[in-house]
Amino acid sequence: MMIQLKDVKKSFGRANEIQAVDNVSLTIEEGEIFGIIGYSGAGKSTLIRLLNGLETPTTGTIKIGSREISAFTGKEMREARQKISMIFQHFNLLWSRTVKQNIAFPLEIAGVKKAERERKVAELIELVGLSGRENAYPSELSGGQKQRVGIARALANDPEVLLCDEATSALDPETTDAILDLLTNINERLGLTIVLITHEMHVIRKICHRVAVMEAGKVVEIGPVLEVFQSPQAPITKRFVSQVTEPAGTEQVLAHIPGGTLVKLAFVGEKTEHPVLASLIRKFDIDVNIVQGNISHTKGGAYGSLILQLVGNKNDIDTAIAYLHELDVQTEVIGND
Amino acid sequence: MIENLFPNVNWEKMWEATVETLYMTGLSTLYTFIFGLVLGVLLFLSSPGQLWKNKLVYGVTGAFVNIFRSIPFIILIILLIPFTTLLVGTIRGPEAAIPALVIGAAPFYARMVMIGLREIDRGVIEAARSMGAKTSTIIFKVLLPESMPALISGITVTSIALVGYTAMAGVIGAGGLGNLAYYEGFQRSRTDVMIVATVIILVIVFIIQIIGDFAVKKLDKR
Predict the structure, then answer these.
(1) Does A79 touch chain B (CB under 8 A)?
(2) Which residue blocks in chain A are alpha helix, DSSP H?
(3) What is the ipTM of this complex?
(4) Distance separating alpha carbons of residues A77 and A71, to the nearest angstrom
(5) Which of A81, A320, A327, B95 lies 20 to 30 Å from A270 when distance is taken between CA atoms?
């Protein structure tokens, strides 16, 4: 257990009338990449800031490792923060410092000697792939490079936990993937626990082991990413999952399919490799038309969804659907003529 | 040649007055920079939503700044006569002008410091806090370096205003080019003395502006 939140509440406003974080309890394991997803205003920014004491909980306790962060103040808190670092959506680099000096900043704060600082900075520049750019100023870097500086800076004091505050939201898709790969790499090589918040399911799918879905200050769903993808419970989770499993325009496509029965199949793990479709056609006297198909890869395995149009007589279709249920493929009838 | 053009100008006196003006401007700029910076940082940190948010400190500092910024300089000098006598022991000469110049200019500069500090991205301050930085570290390693171009262009403007203030202080006996232009030039109807003194003041102002602009350009890496 690396991080433990117990009945954490954070209220704002004159009479504490705004509940930003509402009774959240959760545990994050050591070495885990834990994602928190929610729309803006769901309380995820406040939640992540509770983890490094930038916000203090109104009630409840927060433990990071053996430290009870929520009870810390002053010097104790500042020292704890050196082991819980953070990267930001807008990078938050000092424009007046070069790449090297930006990465050295947390080391200066921790009182590390100059020679040691220089050694550490060189090592980090190598790690995040910024060799040759050490004397550039942030204004001379691209967004992706700036975030690499942010990551190097965050790793300077060998933290136990890395908090990512929408770290890829200001980046283009390609750069996002490169930064996510870097985070995965760091997680695997250094065994660092990573907590990230995002509003993009893509980020969760690509690197997280477990995910918590937040809405109106509450955690409405939590579990391994693949499980959540496979059978999302809360309506908001379903919306997030469809962000990555259903290509844009699915609804329009479905509206234009005439006749037949529309079924949506969900495959998980190795079932994605079974020739379900072929046996369906062979065994039943129905026509099968593929409307849309998609396979997404998560950290825990692959997840596929397929939308089929079944045409034929009603009995055959019903037995075909029963057969699919038997195969343990999640089947949902989403439209009937 | 020059003697014919400016028959009444005593170059030795003119040089002496120039040195006095430079002395008053330089020293008062230095003190204004220090006091203005302290006041401005205090004003910024105590303002709502900042690290030391404190209504009382913010209110008192803000009132002090606003009052002294609003009093016309020529009246401020007169009001400060007892204070100046206490501090310098006289109300005549370049030294005696310094307290009034600094008290007149520091609040003005403090406001500019505050504006400069406000322009720093809040995220950068948050990042420093997230690394475990103390407030003093945040002041000296984040706030001041990150707002340096604004602080420098602010002190340039203030320093130029101070050249003008020294001329005013000169009229009531502080010496310098203003004193020379008024007593030797205006009151004795020696236009040439006024012109030369004015031109020298202009040159001083231009030089300050050029140095300021150059420093800002060098420092700004945004």
Answers:
(1) yes
(2) 44-51, 74-81, 99-109, 114-127, 143-155, 173-190, 201-207, 225-230, 235-245, 250-255, 276-283, 314-326
(3) 0.86
(4) 9
(5) A320
Q: CB within 8 A of A142, min separation 6: which ones?
A: A175
Number of Cβ pairs closer than 8 Å across A and B? 66
Q: Is residue B3 part of a domain?
A: no
Count the domains in chain B: 1
**What's the confidence (pLDDT) of residue A249?**
67
Alpha-carbon distances, residue A87 vs A94, A133, A158, B126, B174 (angstroms): 13, 20, 14, 11, 56
| B59 in a structural domain | yes
pLDDT at residue A158 greater than cutoff 80: yes
A306 and A251 in a single domain? The answer is: yes
Token pair of A44, please?
């995820």
Q: What is the pLDDT of residues A285-337, one digit of tens each?
A: 888 888 888 777 787 777 778 888 888 888 888 888 888 888 777 788 877 76
Q: Domain range holding A261? A: 247-336
Are A139 and B142 an interchain contact pair (Cβ–Cβ within 8 Å)? no
Smallest Cβ distance to B146: which of A85, A96, A163? A96
CB atoms within 10 A of CB A21: 27
Nearest to A90 among B123, B145, B221 (CB): B123
For the stretch B55-61, contacts whose Cβ atoms lie closer than 8 Å and that sit 24 or more positions apart, written own/partner, are none
DSSP string, A158-177: --SEEEEESTTTTS-HHHHH
User: Residue B191: which CATH number?
Assistant: 1.10.3720.10
Residue B57 is part of which domain span? 10-219
Contacts of B127 in chain A (CB under 8 A): 86, 88, 92-93
Q: Which residue on chain A is closest to B149 by alpha carbon?
A: A96
pLDDT given at position A282: 86
Contact (CB, 8 A) for A262 and A336: yes
**Min distance B129 CA to chain A CA atoms (Å):** 8
